[in-house]
């Protein structure tokens, strides 16, 4: 055990000597002499400044600012949006159509029970199976009307726009 410890210490000492001899001289630590400590000059008070600058500190005798004074507004650059990007346009399949309102009410005559979509984006299908065609996708939080039993794997629903279809029951909860 002692031999192993000595071998490690000798190996590390050898590396240090090699790096010291052939290493980058810029990377070597240089002994620095401490900078002499000087006293800081006293900070003048307002009266001293007013006397030194004349009446109305920072202004001329007639109250106007000095000619060499640079105004702050000329020093601050104007904030410009550098990369605004192109203006937004609707995708081709929605060109000319207005988007439906975000919180559309259910159609008149809706009798419930009402349910809420719990997924982020849930497919509404033509039938109660994943092999049926997707009619639309419903956003999370959309309130729908259940048209049939609500306890099964698939629930027949009606959207706020009046469209009927089926949604998986795992993505629905009763509306409060």
From TrEMBL:
Q: Which segments show compositional bias classed as Low complexity? A: 29-38
SH3b domain: which residues? Answer: 112-176
Q: Which domain of life is it from?
A: Bacteria
**Record-linked InterPro entries:** SH3-like_bac-type
Q: For the region Disordered, what residue ranges are annotated?
A: 28-47, 53-100
Q: What Gene3D superfamilies does the record point to?
A: SH3 Domains
Coiled coil start-end? none
The record's listing under SMART domains reads: SH3b
* Name the UniProt record assigns to this protein: SH3 domain-containing protein
């Amino acid at each position: 055990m002692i031999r192993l410890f000595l071998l490690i210490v000798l190996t590390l000492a050898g590396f240090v000597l090699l790096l010291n001899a052939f290493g980058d001289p810029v990377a070597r630590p240089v002994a620095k002499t401490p900078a002499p400590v000087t006293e800081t000059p006293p900070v003048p008070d307002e009266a001293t400044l007013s006397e030194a600058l004349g009446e109305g500190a920072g202004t001329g005798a007639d109250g106007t600012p000095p000619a060499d004074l640079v105004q702050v507004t000329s020093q601050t650059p104007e904030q410009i949006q550098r990369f605004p990007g192109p203006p937004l346009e609707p995708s081709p399949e929605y060109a000319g159509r207005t988007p439906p309102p975000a919180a559309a009410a259910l159609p008149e005559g809706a009798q419930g029970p009402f349910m809420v979509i719990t997924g982020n984006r849930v497919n509404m299908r033509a039938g109660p199976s994943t092999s049926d065609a997707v009619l639309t996708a419903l956003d999370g939080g959309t309130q729908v009307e259940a048209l049939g039993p609500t306890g099964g794997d698939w629930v027949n629903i009606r959207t706020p726009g009046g469209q009927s279809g089926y949604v998986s029951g795992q993505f629905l909860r009763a509306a409060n």
